[in-house]
Each structure stands twice: as C-alpha cells, then as structure tokens.
Amino acid sequence: MSLIARLAEKSWQNPGIDGRSDPADYRPPAAKVGLVAFMGVATVIFTLLSAAYLMRMGIHGNMGHGTAGDWRPLPKPPQLWINTGLLALGCLAWEAARRLARSGEAAPMRSAAALGNGLGVLFLLGQLLLWRHYQAGGYFLAANPANAFFYLLTALHGLHLAGGVIAGLHAPYPPAGGHDARLRIQLCAIYWHFLLLVWIVLLVLLLST
Amino acid sequence: MATTIADDLRPMHHPKTWAGKYVWSQDHKVIAIQYSLTAIAVGLVALVLSVLMRLQLGFPGAYSGITPENYLQYVSMHGMIMVVYLLTALLLGGFGNYLIPLMVGARDMVFPFVNMLSYWIYLLSVVVLLSGFFVPGGPTGAGWTLYPPQAISEGTPGHQWGIVTMLVSLAIFVVAFTMGGLNYVTTVLQARTRGMTLMRMPLSVWGIFIASIMGLLAFPALFVAAVMMLLDHLAGTSFFMPAMQSMGQTSQTMGGSPILFQHLFWFFGHPEVYIVALPAFGIVSDLISVHARKNIFGYRMMVWAIVIIGGLSFVVWAHHMYVSGMNPYFGYFFATSTLIIAIPTAIKVYNWLLTLWRGDIHLRVPMLFALGFIFTFIHGGLSGLFLGNVSVDVPLSDTFFVVGHFHMVMGVSPILVIFGAIYHWYPKITGRMWNDALGKIHFWITFLGVYVIYLPMHYIGILGVPRRYYALGETGFIPQSVHTANEMISIAAFVVFAGQAVFFYNMIHSYFWGPKAEPNPWGAASLEWQTPETPPGHGNWGAHLPIVYRWAYDYSVPGAARDFIPQTEPPS
C-alpha cells in the first residue's frame, strides 16, 4: 500500500474490520526503512557538497560565489579508474552474496561477503594511495579549492564506506534472536550499491570539471 | 536488530542493573528524560546569558564585568544554545522520545541501542560546546549564524578556539540528531500498533514526525558548513574565505565565498525554525483539544498543513539573506514563497480557534499555556509578514524589530508550548500532580512578562535601534525614551527569569511530595493515557499491545457515556 494511499485513509475506517488490510501486516522490516532514511541523509550531504562545489567553481561568478579564476582542476591519474573498478567489483561480490543468501547457501554467501569487504578495504587503500599521489605532485589541501573539495568529498565517501565495511563484517553472522543473515546481507548490498552510485556521481563531477 | 512490534517481550532487553535502568538505558522514556534534563540544564546557561545581556542593555556599565567582547559571546552562545541545544533537543529528543512510542502504541523505539547512543553523543556535543567557555579567548562571539570571514578572523572574540569548539560541537550534534531522527521516523512508520493508521495519529506525533524528517534533510547542511569552515580555519582552505588584507599583509586564503556559507547555513537555518515549530504546533493542538473537550477542528487539514509547511520551509531560506545582496528575481521568489507559508499556518491558527469555539474550556495550567501560545504566535507571525518582504526587511533587518519578531515566534511560542506540555504530561511521566496555584502564578509571570519584554522591542526597532550592539551611546536618532524602555525590558526580563524558580520548585517538590496522579487525570482519549501502569513500565503495555479503533479526538461525542472515548474502545 503506497504512502499516498495511506495518507488518503480516513480515521473512521477500521483496518482489518472494514475489509481494509492493517498496516501492521504489510510492513517491510524496520531496519530496511531505517537504512533508506539514512541513505536519504547521505544523499543530502553529497548533494549539498556537489552544489557547493559547482557554486565555488565560479560557474555563477556574477552571483558572488567566488571567482572563476582561482579554480585549477586536478589531473586525472589512472588510479581513479582502478579504484572505481575495485568498488564496482566489491558491489558485484555483495550482489552475489545477496543472491546466495536468498537461495540459502550459507558458506558461499560468507565467502562472497568476505570478498566484498576485502575489495572495500582495497578501495579505501587505493584512495589513500591516490591522496599520496596528489600530495607528491604538490596538490595539497589548501593549495586550491579544487583540491580541497576533492579531499573532502573522498574523505566523506570513504568514511561512509568504512562504516559499510564494519557493518559488512558483522552481517553474515547474526546474533541469536536478531534478524536472519538474509536481510542483513541484503541491506549491505543495497548500501554498497548506493555508495557505488554516489562515487560514480562524484567521479563524473571530478572528471567533467 | 531487535524489533518491538510484536507482543513478544523477549527482544526488550530488560535492564538488570541500576545503571542499566537509569544511566545506560535503552528505554525511550528514560532517554527522553535524560534528553530533557540535559536540554533544560544547558538552556539555563543560555537563560543566564540573556540576563547578563539585558543587564548590559538596560543599565550600561552597571556591571563592569561585561566587556564588549563578552557581550558578543553571550549573544552567540545564547542564540545557538536556545535554538539547537535546548529547543530542538527538548522537543524531538525529549518529547519525541517520550511520546512517539506511547502515542502510536509501540513498546519502544525500533532501534533502542541507537537511541541510547543518540543521547550520549548529544551529551558529548553539549560538553564540547560548554568547553568553549574555558578555552583561551572564550567562546565564539561571531553571532549565532557564525558568518565567515569574521567568525574565524582576528578581531572576533573566540576566533581561535571558541569557534572550533562551536563547530565541532555542532558536527557532533548533527550525528546525535541523525541517530535520534532515524529512530523517530522509522518508529512512526514501522511500529504503530494494530489499527493505528497514519490518519489516526495524534497531531503531536505528526508534528514530531514531519519535524524529524525535516531535521534529517536540513541538519546535513549545517554539518557540511561546519566541516568546511573548520577546514578553512584549521587547514587553510578557501571554501568560504576570500583574500583579505590586514595590516598591509594579504591573507593566505583567496577566492572563497562567504555567501556560500550563508546559503548552506540558512538551508539548515530556516527549516530549523519549523523543526522547532511543528512539534509545538502538534502538541498545542492536542492540549487545546483535550482541555476544550472538543475534537480538533479539521484534523486532516491540520495534518496536511503540517506536511505543506514542512515542504515549503525548504524553499524560503534566502529570506534571511536579503541584506547580503542577491539577484532581485531571487528576492522576489523567496519573498513569494515566504508569504505563501502564511496560508497553511493561518489554516492551523483558525483551526485552533475553531476548536476552542463553543468548547467546554477548562482553564487548567496546560490550557493557559496553549492559549498563551496562540497569542504570542499570532503576534510573532504577523511581524514576520513585514520581514518577509524585501523592501521592508532591508531597513528593519539589523534592528531590534527582528529580535522582537523571532523571539516571539520561535523563542517564546515554543517555550510556552513546552511548559504547557510539561504540565500536561507530568502526571503520566512522574505519577504525581503538580501544585495548580503555583502553575498559574508561573504562567501569568511568564506570559505577561514576555509581552513586556518583546512588544517594546518592535517599537524601538522601528525607531532604528540596532541589534547586537554592546552600548547605544549618544546618538541623535535614539531618543531618551528608548533608554527608559530598555530599563523596563531588562527589569521585566529579570522578573521572568526569577519567576522560573516557581516552575522548578513546583516540579521538584511535586515529584517527591505531590499528590498521586490518576492514570488519566484530564480524561484524554489518546493512547499514552491508557497504559496499564502510571508511570508506564518498561515495555509500556504489559502483556499485550493495545488495539486502536478510532482517532485520538473523540471528545463530547453525543450519546456517549463519558465526555471522551479512548482510542482503545471498540465501536459499539
């Protein structure tokens, strides 16, 4: 039942009595709703930073948001593509884990989840190497606003991914009385797909400017 | 993740130790009280700061301990504490936590552990904030809006360390709020009991629910702005910092945009007004309905008005920036969107009045505060119509008119609702009744007092008296009467400040020695008054969750045996 339909309900209609289903019967798991809400918060953070990025670039120079002259884009080394590939492979591993969890194959599911986590850690290490590469080239944080945005965006994305890795390490091993591994793996997969999407948007932003 | 929707008490994590029950508690009611007491304690600090400010404004030089730098620090800390650490934390962390599970028929929040973390991280943010008073140079004096470049430039009080504690504290607060907000939203969506459809929820829950969604979408802007300004200050980046000349030296920063900060700040700052106002709107609707023994007029319209106000509040932020300069078409757009908010807001005001119309009004203390809110909110709202227009705002923006306006509309109004709500739910929370006479004395001192304080501010603002000034000095356009008015305002502020002692005495004394409260002393229909125990026990509902058959506003129903029908009573 859609949110709109629920908002169209009347207080005098009795769910479960007047032939209407009761919301308590068709709810998705709370953890899933919580995750979607959290991804909403993260989306706002990255959207605002992207907006600030474009404004600070000086696209709207006549509105007083900085001057177009001081923005010097970073070079685009091949590490960017390697890291992107690692993250995409991590997502594929999590997708495999999700499907294996759905079909109840516990041992391969754990392996796939471990592979996903490993690729995530590799991505984070790759990002650190990328930072060092830029530092070695003299592209320091305070040297240019383009550098500052790059470090800030990658740091925030990395923090979100690190949280994903921590959750991912626990996901295949549910405590007694908690949700089963299937839901936990599914939520991890959703979150990793989301972070890949965010990274691709950030990458397009970095490459196109 | 343990859920609490079913009649299964196993995932409830019954606390076994004293610390598990009262300190590291995962019970929403305990967390609510922890949030509320912390918010009130830090609010008292802000209240003392306002008394010091009024001491300086009413009697300049009477107390030499207040330097111009101190004054600016008091202004800044007072504003930030009141808006974020008191009002937001108390209305959402306090009332949100206490009321949502009880009003929707849940055993607890859906993520109790995250809820507990939310409180402790909030406490950490408060500690970091208050540590600003003890760092070299004292807290920031940049104004509560913290505009760069002045916030982190030499000459502003606390520009070295005070601003750091402020920004770090805000970033921590946003993390705490996000944890709480995710809980409030998910609990409303997921943990309503059988029969509790969205359109049967009390308006208190609706207000808190929409405000939580808004907070989740608005606080990230503050987080981003705080992190970027911290980098500007500590790492020398130029997000917001332009090139500056000082003593013949050019700063290391260049090209940054102070206006960019303003956009980010107000993209948070304006929704923040409604994050505070919407829970107050919801709560006051319930207070009025219960104590006027009438169903709320136009319930569905009230819900939609809350939703529409929440949505519109995201497209009005630049009305705080008229004096910063902007494209005239932008000003036109933001003035229009600002004034459109008057429509759903007026719907709410009319519906409150129509609920009162021919109601069986009981002038108990909660109702007095609710009625007081209607007065102060209408006054504050009407002066907002002036300030929403660009051409009127520009001359008034930096005067006391604005101080009068926003204190009336988002300072006093939510505070009156908070007082009303505390008096209303105190018997359920503590199981004791407060002293009625003391409650009424507290109301009249507060209500009349705030009028004596804030109404004259509009007049002296129109005369052109600037805000944020340490002393007015001798100026041609400020007549002697302004100084007299300032003395009067200050004396009224001292009286209102002292009057709050009545409230604290009443609450503390009644907690120990007040008469035992009935489970439902006001004859209210909503779910939180139907708990098997008063105060509600861990898990709220005993062995079985309640089942809901009707909305929360069945008062004075013709033909009914009593003048209210609880939500749990099946249709006959």
UniProtKB/TrEMBL annotation, chain A:
Q: Which UniProt keywords apply?
A: Membrane, Transmembrane, Transmembrane helix
According to its UniProt entry, one GO biological process term is: aerobic electron transport chain
Disulfide bond as UniProt keyword = no
Task: Name the principal localization, coarsely classed.
Answer: membrane
Record localization: Cell membrane; Membrane
Domain named Heme-copper oxidase subunit III family profile: which ranges? 32-209
Membrane listed as a keyword: yes
Q: What does the record give under GO molecular function?
A: cytochrome-c oxidase activity
Per the UniProt record, which residue ranges are transmembrane? 33-55, 109-129, 149-169, 190-208
Q: What is this protein's record name?
A: Heme-copper oxidase subunit III
Automatic annotation (TrEMBL), chain B:
Topology term for the membrane: Multi-pass membrane protein
User: Which keywords fit this entry according to its UniProt record?
Assistant: Electron transport, Heme, Iron, Membrane, Metal-binding, Respiratory chain, Transmembrane, Transmembrane helix, Transport
* GO BP annotation list: aerobic respiration; electron transport coupled proton transport; respiratory electron transport chain
Gene Ontology MF annotations: cytochrome-c oxidase activity; heme binding
List all membrane-crossing ranges: 35-57, 77-100, 120-139, 159-182, 203-231, 273-290, 302-323, 329-353, 365-388, 400-423, 443-462, 488-508
Protein family per UniProt: Belongs to the heme-copper respiratory oxidase family.
Would you tell me the protein name for this molecule?
Answer: Cbb3-type cytochrome c oxidase subunit I
UniProt organism field: Novosphingobium flavum
